[in-house]
C-alpha cells in the first residue's frame, strides 16, 4: 500500500487548497509555489505514487486528467497562446510529491523544455 501524501488530504478537503475542479476521478488545484501565471496541479483521486504505477485499469482516470487540463486551460485563458503539461517521475524526473500529478503551466512563454 502506497504512503499517502499531502495531496490525499487536499482531495479530502482536510487541508486548504485553491481547488478549481473535482469529480469522481480527479482533483485540480493551484500549485502553492507557482512557476508561471497559471500553475495548476491535476491529480487522480486514487493514490498512484508515480507513472511507473499506472495500470491499464487506470486509463479512464489518466484520460480524465487530460480533458480536465484542456478545460482548465480554456478557463484560465491560456489555451490559445499555449501551455505546457508536465508529469515528473522519480528523482531524475524531479518528482517531489509521490502522488501522480500533472502540472499545467501557462500565461507566459515557458522557454526550452529542459534546462541542461
Ligand atoms: P513535483 O516536483 O513533485 O513534480 O511537483 C510537486 C508540486 O507540488 C510542486 O510544484 C509544489 O509547489 C506543489 N506542492 C507541494 N506541496 C503543496 C501543497 O501543500 N499545496 C499545493 N497547492 N501545492 C503543493
Automatic annotation (TrEMBL):
GO terms for molecular function: hydrolase activity. It comes from Photobacterium toruni. The active site is at residue 101. It comes from the Bacteria. Residues 6-115 form the HIT domain. InterPro entries: Histidine_triad_CS, Histidine_triad_HIT, HIT-like, HIT-like_sf. This is HIT-like protein. It is an enzyme of class 3 (hydrolase).
Amino acid at each position: 500500500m502506497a504512503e499517502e501524501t499531502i495531496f490525499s488530504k487536499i482531495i479530502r478537503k482536510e487541508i486548504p487548497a485553491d481547488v478549481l475542479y473535482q469529480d469522481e476521478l480527479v482533483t485540480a488545484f493551484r500549485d502553492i509555489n507557482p512557476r508561471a501565471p497559471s500553475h495548476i496541479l491535476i491529480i487522480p483521486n486514487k493514490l498512484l505514487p508515480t507513472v511507473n504505477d499506472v495500470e491499464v485499469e487506470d486509463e479512464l482516470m489518466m484520460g480524465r486528467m487530460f480533458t480536465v487540463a484542456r478545460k482548465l486551460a480554456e478557463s484560465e485563458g491560456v489555451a490559445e497562446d499555449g501551455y505546457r503539461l508536465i508529469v515528473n517521475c522519480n528523482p531524475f524526473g524531479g518528482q517531489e510529491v509521490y502522488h501522480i500529478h500533472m502540472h499545467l503551466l501557462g500565461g507566459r512563454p515557458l522557454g526550452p523544455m529542459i534546462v541542461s
